[in-house]
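Q: Gfo/Idh/MocA family oxidoreductase, please. Structure only.
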Amino acid sequence: MSFPHSLPEPRLPDPTGGPALRWGILGTGWIAERFAASVLRHTNHQVVAVGSRSEEGAQRFTGRLGGEPLGSYAELVAHPRVDVVYVASPHPQHVEHALLAIAAGKHVLVEKPMAIDATGARRIAEAARAAGVLAMEAMWSLCLPKFRVLRRLLDDGVLGEPTMVSADIGEYFPDAHRIHDPALAGGAMMDLGTYPLTLATWVLGAPTEVAAQGVRGPTGTMAQTTMTLRHGDAQSALHASALVETPTVAAISGTDAWVSLDGPWYQPGSFTLHGRDGGQLRHLEAATAHDGLYWEALEVAHCLGEGRVESGIRPLDATIATLEAMDQVRAVTGDRLAGES
Ligand SMILES: NC(=O)c1ccc[n+]([C@@H]2O[C@H](COP(=O)([O-])OP(=O)(O)OC[C@H]3O[C@@H](n4cnc5c(N)ncnc54)[C@H](OP(=O)(O)O)[C@@H]3O)[C@@H](O)[C@H]2O)c1
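A: Structure for Gfo/Idh/MocA family oxidoreductase:
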């Protein structure tokens, strides 16, 4: 296909156009605070209730961001004004907490990874489908404007046949951080590796062959992993580290054109489309980090506004496929997690 004159416009939901969802926040940690702040800043949604394992935890959170403080998750999911529960507990608790909300008849947006393995994600998918409620993995990157432009470039064949994806993500975390805790499914894969694996499977589909190597960190978890995956005739080269900073850039190469994503590529930011003849088009997007979390809330509202209980951007089967790939990688590296099936 010939190199385009301009990039396609992303199809974006209107921040105030869908239903004004009433969120219940489950867990009051690092990401929950950023999610609530972003949603309150950019949408007409409300945070109506916040559930914590303790009264003090809930009050600390609502003191800053509002909402009714509740000292248990059971009270949160039973709250009559809550439409949708955002599950922001550590990874090994996602299944239990998502199932709790689904059993109470609530829609759920579950932090990534949806579960520590594909079996857990399948349990959430089955429960949500049986209850007729929405369940979506909070894979926020795919909801950002730049990934919507990329999807159109891929679907329109602008890149030709996608043949190679390379992506890394690396961030130093001190030894005491949750990410190194063996009891909380610590290591690089859950928090970080899920991003490059999502990108590779989003572009190239499920891997047909997996090779990987892992390095253990200070607490014995698999704190750094490199992966080379075959997807039919295409390949991906991915790595994730919780030990060191890396450029955190990504590239998608097709037979006609390729894309380089500025780092950190999984957050809001810009990318360049390169033609084989040297032509370039630049997608400009402000690098606003986690202030971009509201796009995933708008995707939930957009689906519910259309009467759909599954996201077209992050369908449940795609979440399960990413976790199946992660299960395969961890089997190769010997990255066993406490509590996995
Ligand atoms: N999208 C992103 O960019 C992004 C970034 C960071 C993290 N995440 C994801 O979000 C999830 C939470 O990460 P986080 O960094 O926010 O973690 P965090 O700061 O440790 O917060 C987790 C919260 O979960 C609750 N919790 C429930 N059971 C717990 C247990 N057994 N141990 C510890 N806390 C427990 C706690 O809230 P209460 O005490 O109030 O109950 C705690 O504050 C992870 O799955 C992670 O992958 C996503």
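A: Brief note, in case it's useful. The chain is about 35% helix and 25% strand.
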